[in-house]
Design a protein that fits this description.
heterodimer, A: mainly alpha, 62% helix, B: alpha+beta
Chain lengths: 219, 497
Amino acid sequence: MTKMIRNPFAVVLVCASALSLVPVQSSAQDQGANPLMVKHRNDCRLAAQVLIIGEPHTKRDWARGYIANCEDEGPSAIVQEWRRVPADTAAVVQLMRASTAIRDMRIYEQVRSVAVDRSRADVVRVGAMHVLDSYVDPHHAGWFESRPPADRQVRRVYPANAVLAHAAYTNGPARLVGSVREPVLQLLQQIAAARQVEPVTVWYAAAALAKRLEYQRGR
Amino acid sequence: LSLVAVSACADVRHPTSPTAAADTAGNFARLSQRAANGPRFDLDANGQFVNANIEVTQGSYLTFEVESTDNGWCDTVYLGGVLSGTLFTSVGPGWCGKPQPVTIGPVATGGTYTIVTENSRFWARIGFPGSARVRSMFNGGSYRVYIEDSDDGDFNDIVLIVTVRQPELALTCGTVAGQELTKPVSGQAIDVPITRGDTLSCEARSLNRERGPAWSRGWRFNGKAREDGDTESNVWRGVMVQSGVIEVKAHTGLRRDPGAGEETLRATVTVTNRDWSGRSPFIHAETVRNRTDSDPRTALPAEVRFAHHLGHVRFRASKNYDPGDDRPPEPTAEIRGGPNNGLFYYRDLTFPVYAPIVLNDDAMARGSAFYNAQVEESNNSINFGTVYCPRPYVVGDLRAHVLKHEEKHVEVFQTARAFALADSIRAWETRVDSLGDADMVDAYFTEWERTLQLAVAESRRVVDGKGSPFRTAFSWRGRPCTLRNVFGADLVNDGEN
C-alpha cells in the first residue's frame, strides 16, 4: 500500500476506477448491454491499475496479458510496464503482445527509448525492438529468427523473415501518423553497428530486423 | 565418320617384279571382304581398288606407311593424304627408299575411316590406269594394301600399310550418383552434359593394362590450373555450375614419365539449367496447434477478440518448422573442390516456405471463454435481425471454416509467389561469383522480401478483402451467422476493419 500511495498514477487511477464503475454498470442496465462488455471495461481498468501501481501483484501476469485488449487504458499502462518489466522472457513476451496489439504513439516512443537503453536487460531491449518492427509493419513476425546462433559465432546475419497473413491490432488514442519505417530502421542500424559494445543478442536482433527493412526497401 | 584420303604414290621404274613378297603368300584376304576387326576394301566394277574402310575408336592413332618391296625393281613411293581436313605428307628418300611413316591421331571421333586413293595422281604415277589390282590382309593391327601395278601378279609393287593403334588413355566423365557414374562418357576429347549443381567426376584412365596405369598432371579448367587437392591425381571431382573445358595431361606406364607419350585429354562440359518448373516454389503448409510459447507476435490469444484470433497462417523462409533451427535456408553454396572450385552459386531458387496454419483449438473448445460468449442453442439467437451462431457451432463446423479460410491464404500465396519468382529464377540460375556471395545473398533476400510481401498482400487482398467470397464466413445450418467475441461484441476480422 505504501508503494501505491507513493505512485501518483495510482491515486488517479484508483479514484477514476471507483468513479467510473457505477455509471458503466448503470448504463449497461439501462441499455441492456451485454454483461461481457461491462465486465471487459471493468477488467481493462483493473488491468491498467495493476500495471501502473503494481497492486494487486498477484494479478500482474493476468494484467500484462489482458491489457492487450484495452486500447483506451492500455497505452499508459503499457508504457509504465516497459519502464520496469524485469529480465524475464515470459513477462517481456506478454508485454510485446500487448504492445503490438495496440498501436499507439506513446508506446512507440517508450519502446524506442528502451531499445537503446544499455542499462536494460537484453531480452527487454530485444522485445522493444520487435515492437518497433511491428510498428513498421504489423504483419511482421520473427521472434525466433532474430536470435543469434546458439554458439554465438555469427558468420552471417539472416533477416527475420516471418510474415503473418493476419495482423489483429487496434489503434490507441494517440495514433501513429505516417510510416515509422525510416526512424525505426535508423535506430536498428545504429544498434546493429555497435557490435563492439552491444551484447550479441542485442546487436544481432537489431541487425536481423534491420536487414528485413533494408531488403524491403530494396538495397 | 571421317574421310581419310591417302595417296600412295609410286614412281614406277620397273613395271614388273619377279617374285612375290613372302609375307603375303597365301595370306591375302579376299578383296571386298572384311577381316575380323579389319578394314573393308571396296572395289569398283572392274575389280579395282577404290578405298579401304577402317573402323577405329575415338582416340585411336593411325600410322600410314608405304613402300615398294619389289626386289630389284623398286619404285620410289610417296605418302600423302588428308585426315579430317589435315594434310599429311611424307616424302620418300628416293628410289627404292621408304618414306617416314606418318602417324595421325588421336582421332577425334570413332567410326569408320575411309582410305581412298587420289585416283588421278595415283594412276598417273603408276602409269597403268585401269590395270592396278589390290589385295590386302590384316595382321596384328596393321592393314596392308598390296597394289599391283602390272600383270606379274606379285602384288608388291606398292604396299600401303595402315596401322591402327587403339587409344591407351581415356578421360571418363560422368555425373556422380552415390559413388557411381551415371552414363559416363569416355574418350580423349569428350562432350559432357551436366545439370547445374550436379557433381561431375572425371578420371584419366589407362586403357592398356599391359603398359600400366595412367599418370596424370596439369588438370586445368578453361585454362586455369587446378588449385584444389592433389594436382597429380587421376581424378578431378566437384559440383559444376559453369561450362568449360577440362584438360589433363596423362600417359600410361609403370612410372611417372611425362616424356613418354604424354597426351592431353579434354572434356567439354556443358552445364545446363536446372528445371525449376516442377519445384517452384516449394511450400510446406501444415496445421499446428496454437502455442503460447511460440513467437509472441504469432501466438493466438485466449481472449478471442477478432476472427483472426481463431486462426492464422505464418509464412517464413524455411523448409520445415524446427524451433531449434531458426535460420532460413542458405540460398547460396560455395563449391569446394573440382573444376568450379571456389565459385558461389544459388543452390536453391525455390524460396522454400514453411506455412504453419495455427488454429486456436483451445478457444474453439467447449467451456472456453469464447464458447461461453456465444448464445446457447435457443430461439433467441436472432437479435435485431442478426442471427448469432450458437455454441454448438463453435465446437462443430467452426474449426473447418477457419481452416478453409487459412488454406485459401496459402493457396493464393503460392500462386502469387510463383508468378513473382519466375523472373528471378530465370535471372539467377546462371549467376555465380568467385569473390563471395554477399551480393548474391542480399539479392536473394531482397527478392525474398519482395515476393513474400507481394504474395502475402495478395492473399490478404483476395481472401480477407471486403466482399471476398473467401472472407471469414460463419454459417450455422446453412445460414450465415455472427459470432461474438469474448467481450460480447460482434466478431470482426481484425482491428483493421
